[in-house]
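Z., the sequence and structure:
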Amino acid sequence: MTTEVYLNSRYVGDVENPEQFVQNIVDSRRKADLSSNVNVSYDKKKNEIHVESLRGRLRRPLIVVKDGKSLLTEKHITQLEKSELTFSDLLKQGVIEYLDAAEEEGTFIAFYENELTKQHTHLEISPIDIFGLCGSLVPYANHSPGARIAMGAKNQKQSLGLYAANFSVRMDMDVNILHSAQRPIVTTLTHETSMYEKHPSGQNIVVAVMAYKGYNMEDAVILNKGSIDRGMGRSTYFRPAITEELRYAGGLTDEISIPDKEVKGYKSERDYRFLEEDGIIYPEAQVKEGDVVIGKTSPPRFLSSLEEYNLASNTRRESSLGMKHGEEGIVDFVCITENEEGNKLVQVRLRDQRIPEVGDKFTSRHGQKGVVGLIVPHADMPFSASGIVPDLIFSPHGIPSRMTISHLIELIGGKVGALTGRYIDGTTFDSEPEAALRKLLLQFGFRENGTETMYNGETGEQYQAKIFIGNMYYLKLKHMVANKLHSRARGPIQLLTRQPTEGRSKEGGLRLGEMEKDTFVAHGAALLLKERFDSDKTVVPVCESCGMVAIYNEFKDQSYCPICGDNVEISDIEMSYAFKLILDEFKALGVYPKLQLKTKY
């Protein structure tokens, strides 16, 4: 019986001895006779051999094992340390090979060298390989559930730090810079290899695990106002305003300048007060919503309104770039340049200092995220016997159900690191053991379990319970109240549906959805429901004869039906404008939407 062979999913032939055939390919690859990009897998159930060499496969390096012994010897490691060998050389020598998911199915991989048996075919370079970059930055991750580590990895991507050293000359969309970012005390192997100290994204702070007047329930955290005043969690938010002088058909162009009063849509002199002669704002100007940053006028939208191509200034329209609803800041940088087409391009970068406030989001590296619930004056914060006042108070209720033990070990590790003045290695599967950290705490005269006697900052009384306290790397996330705070009474509406606009930047309405409606129904709040659902209330005249929407002539103060004429009964009906719109759309489809009116009484 022969076995079918497929090369990149195409049938290429049959072989009689499949195991030998696969082994020959693997041996040739290890001797570098074949490209290291080739992978082969033998499916015994289907009796097929698949050879893959195309791009788009996830592959990972493993150490080859023969007769229960790793091919990577001490001699190799010494040569690597002296830079006599490179990773590529090990690949060519067949010591390391890259496997894809299909070939990995037929292997037996050991985590550590001391676990090797005769049956093993490969050895992991390091067990930390199971993580990506962000996952491997979480210290002591083997002490927490995988889901929490995944959250921790996700949270690190949203943290503020130094995203690029040349941020001062860049025009990125909306970015944040943390003012005094630090390297973590509890690090992992990846912190060194990724040169994390060059782009850190958090700060080492003192964290106490305790409840405080109920203001840190449901994952909220409490911040020390003294710490904020000394610069904890301060950041700057940058956002660009960009516009260009476009060219239109007929030789017409936009013009960046202070608009004349004759221009259609002229705002007010106050709105243009920051503009210089060239129509562009000056650096360090403090702007709020409505203020114009770059003055611009454009030709009319439609050539018909040009009145035989009369290019006088009064035909132009206002198209300046102003601050949107809810935005404010200081002009940081002004750049005047050209785009690819040679048109004038003006870029203005705005900055806004962000000081931590109630509602801002903070997190540790273990998926323990929470918003600020209260900012407490320094004098009212609890303090330890040695006079240490925590920067942040974390709720103890976030630990039992989530089982993030790595969060607690980092607290002890950070405490030891701060006392010994060194970095603690918290690499997953290969960290400084917890027992050693506890022993060091004892040597420094602290309790080995990380708890301390604490005192009430308001009364000076000693707390009965011992409080778990230590140092920890905390991240400030980009989700800040200043970017999200939004409210509205009445405001702009959409042209088509006459319903409120959507989104904070457009001063939009706050949508009451289908499920929110159910909560009002459950409360029996009928009048509140009625009020909430009339954002596009309109009164429409309806012909009682044919059931179509009639016409009301405001000047003559009379209604008539376009189908039945004048002498019919026409009633004013209150309805949602969206409903009136769908009636019009039915008419456009050739469907007759007849409204049958009945009296309420």
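The two ends are 88 Å apart (CA to CA). The chain has a mean pLDDT of 93.

Let me know what you think.
H.
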